[in-house]
Write a structure and sequence with these properties.
Helices cover about 25% and strands about 40% of the residues. It is α+β, with helices and mostly antiparallel strands. Strands 1, 2, 3, 4, 7, 10, 11, 12, 13 and 14 form a ten-stranded mixed beta sheet that branches. It has a five-stranded mixed beta sheet with strand order 15-17-18-19-16.
Length: about 290
């Protein structure tokens, strides 16, 4: 199996747990294009077999999340799983004010990642520094918030739900804290669901249990499996004769008139061989199935 399967990660699993389980079930290499926090849910694209070599084409995808922001408390991890380090009364928060604040966050900006994150500084993850009580300087990163929509505001429980469309590298926990601060209070992320990664939607994802229950059902697996050929269906196609196939598979660069980019490579019988990369009118092998 070479391609992608979309997992709808549930709270009881870490991303590492999901990878380990799917690897055991499918008995092949499994990778991912970016983890989800243990408390977060939603779509987790897993790269299967030679599909793991496609991560370079997928890691920069934009994402869409639905988040629940709890106002009036602040935690050390910036989400509800952390220790509460501050509490504050929440007053004079209206739906109109929230919508104004959310809209003001749209656009390119710099964001400082949370200390409880897997970003490495000097070979050590930030959450390792945080757990040992050490402070390190974290450089801000450029991100882009494309849109934010308020879905609901529970004035009694001081919780708001919003959907955000954003670039790779955006930390929603930090965004939650920033929104709360702009509302004149404090806050922490209570829940997070990733509903889209690039073209991959959570509605097309399956749970770990569903995969376990249907692992012997080839028809079900085929229905939920995205092959490399399907994933790159809009890429140019190149047909090679037997002689050129041998050269291609042995790493020889072939002349082509196509523009730079990824292409799908076939033999003369229409059998899909894998992907190639074109650069300066030269085709070279990439992912072979």
């Amino acid at each position: 199996m070479d391609g992608i399967i979309l997992i709808n990660k549930e709270k009881e699993y870490t991303s590492h747990d999901v990878v380990a389980i799917v690897k055991k079930l499918l008995k092949c290499k499994v990778g991912h294009t970016g983890t989800l926090d243990p408390n977060a849910t939603g779509v987790l694209p897993l790269l299967i077999g030679n599909g793991t070599k496609l991560s370079k084409y997928l890691i920069n995808h934009d994402k869409i999340y639905t988040a629940v922001l709890k106002l009036g408390i602040k935690t050390d991890t910036a989400d509800i799983t952390g220790n509460i380090i501050e509490k504050r009364e929440v007053t004079d928060i209206t739906k109109e004010k929230i919508e104004q604040v959310l809209k003001s966050n749209i656009g390119e900006q710099e964001q400082v990642p949370p200390m409880y994150s897997a970003i490495k500084i000097n070979g050590k993850k930030l959450y390792e520094y945080a757990r040992s009580g050490k402070e390190v300087e974290v450089a801000p990163r450029k991100i882009n918030i494309y849109d934010i929509i308020l879905k609901d505001y529970d004035s009694q429980n001081k919780e708001l739900i919003y959907t955000v469309s954003c670039s790779k590298g955006t930390y929603i926990r930090t965004l939650c804290e920033n929104i709360a601060q702009m509302l004149g209070t404090i806050g922490t992320m209570k829940e997070l669901q990733r509903i889209r990664v690039g073209e991959f939607d959570v509605q097309n994802a399956v749970t770990v249990q569903e995969l376990k229950d249907n692992i012997e059902n080839k028809q079900w697996i085929d229905k939920h499996f995205i092959t490399i050929e399907q994933l790159l269906k809009n890429s140019p196609k190149i047909v090679l004769n037997d002689k050129k196939i041998d050269m291609f598979l042995n790493g020889v660069k072939l002349n082509t008139t196509l523009e730079d980019g990824v292409c799908l490579v076939y033999n003369e019988n229409g059998v899909f061989l894998g992907t190639g990369v074109i650069q300066n009118k030269k085709l070279k092998r990439d992912v072979i199935v």
